[in-house]
Specification:
The protein contains 13 helices and two strands, in the order H-E-E-H-H-H-H-H-H-H-H-H-H-H-H. The protein is an all-alpha fold. A hairpin with a 4-residue loop joins strand 1 and strand 2. The chain is globular.
């Protein structure tokens, strides 16, 4: 009876994590799309300074992680804050490119392009490090690459194009793939840091990354007279609804991070990958139905193709994990 109760509590906790991640990041996506496409005030002006969202997110998460460390941390020898300086550079440039892409391509297109992270990873692994992958892994990559390519080549509705600030599909997709390349370096550097400092917690990483993100973005935004940060602040003063949307955007990001850390610590990274992958699919559906980004049948086919590849990849990881666990039991 006790084990049944423990199992029920585990299922309830997982349900809370799923709802938390989905709610936070789906709503954050809606806010991101609103800020990037909406016209504000009687002049119908756009908020052009989308990189300001990254600075706001850095400052918010810096304070959030500091508070979480004070509340939950047991101390310990984590990685020093200065060790994140190089990862901070790529983590500043990468997301800035990803969010700037929304000026040129629709939100569903951006989500789909950023879901193809495995493509640059496998390309780098094969060409640079000579890693050999299995046929199923190549099949996953082929499905994702084919789906993204089909979506990019499909005709976008005039309604969706009219909402974009500067429609330019090649530039938008190019920025997304550069975002993925920088993310790859960021993740590799974070892994190196945690290997050198095993006692580093997720909150330590969040604090270190956002210290440097705040420094770099502050220099970029306010480092000289007439820098774009001053224009962004002025726009927020003239249109307070933008400032409110940015605050909610940052809050969603911080809450989402909480649930991701909780999911990884209690259920593992594979469960977290499954939840975040399905969340991306739901984000595209929400954007299509609620935000007025209609997709053609061909584009929906591309979306299904990409998420079939991602789902198959998750299944392969789960099967590999099961094999490893059986070997451990046998030993």
């Amino acid at each position: 009876m006790e084990s049944h109760g423990a199992g029920l509590r585990r299922v309830l906790l997982l349900s809370v994590c799923v709802v938390g991640i989905w709610s936070a990041y789906i709503y954050q996506g809606v806010l991101q799309e609103t800020v990037s496409t909406r016209r504000f005030g009687p002049e119908k002006k756009r908020f052009e300074h989308l990189a300001f969202l990254n600075l706001a997110q850095n400052v918010f998460c810096l304070n959030w992680s500091f508070i979480m460390i004070k509340i939950w941390s047991n101390g310990g020898d984590g990685a020093p804050w200065w060790s994140y300086w190089s990862a901070g550079i790529t983590n500043t440039i990468g997301p800035a490119m990803g969010i700037e892409a929304l000026k040129y391509i629709s939100y569903p297109a951006q989500v789909l392009a950023k879901s193809s992270k495995m493509i640059p990873v496998m390309l780098m692994g094969t060409l640079v490090y000579g890693i050999r992958y299995t046929f199923p892994e190549y099949l996953c990559t082929l499905l994702v690459a084919g789906g993204v390519s089909m979506f990019a080549l499909s005709k976008t509705s005039s309604k969706t194009i009219s909402k974009l600030a500067h429609p330019n599909a090649p530039l938008g997709y190019g920025l997304c793939f550069l975002n993925l390349a920088f993310d790859g370096f960021t993740n590799a550097t974070q892994d190196s840091i945690t290997a050198r400092y095993p006692k580093t917690s997720a909150w330590n990483i969040m604090l270190g990354m956002n210290i440097w993100g705040t420094i770099y973005n502050m220099i970029f935004m306010f480092g000289w007279p007439n820098a774009i940060g001053f224009e962004a602040i002025q726009f927020c003063k003239q249109h307070p609804e933008v400032a409110w949307d940015i605050f909610l955007y940052c809050l969603c990001g911080a809450i989402g991070q909480n649930f991701i850390f909780l999911t990884i610590s209690r259920f593992g990274s594979l469960t977290n990958t499954t939840i975040t992958t399905t969340r991306k699919f739901v984000s595209i559906v929400v954007s299509s139905l609620l935000s007025g980004n209609p997709l053609s049948y061909k584009q929906w086919g591309s979306v299904v193709m990409v998420f079939s590849g991602l789902s198959y990849q998750i299944y392969l990881k789960w099967r590999k994990l099961q094999r490893m666990q059986r070997k451990k039991k046998a030993m």
